[in-house]
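Bug #77: duplicate submission created two jobs. Keeping one. Sequence:
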Amino acid sequence: MDDQSVRLNRIEEKLDKLTEAMSMIARVDEKLVAGSARIDRLEFRLDEQEGELDKVKANVSQNTQSVKAAERFVWLLVSALVGVIMYSFR
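Kept job's structure:
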């Protein structure tokens, strides 16, 4: 009977170790799932920001063209004003 109790104790120890290992595997799996969910959320947010960045680029391009046109008009007015002033001194 003594041999059987020793054998049962060894089996119980092995089962305890197996239970601990399964618990650790479950925790690692939960961490992986949580990490995957975070990555998915970050990818979604990155896609949204990428769309917003494209909109900003379009606005900047349009504003750049408007500023160029306005700058040309202002320089045209300045040149005309200088021309009128020089003509009046003549």
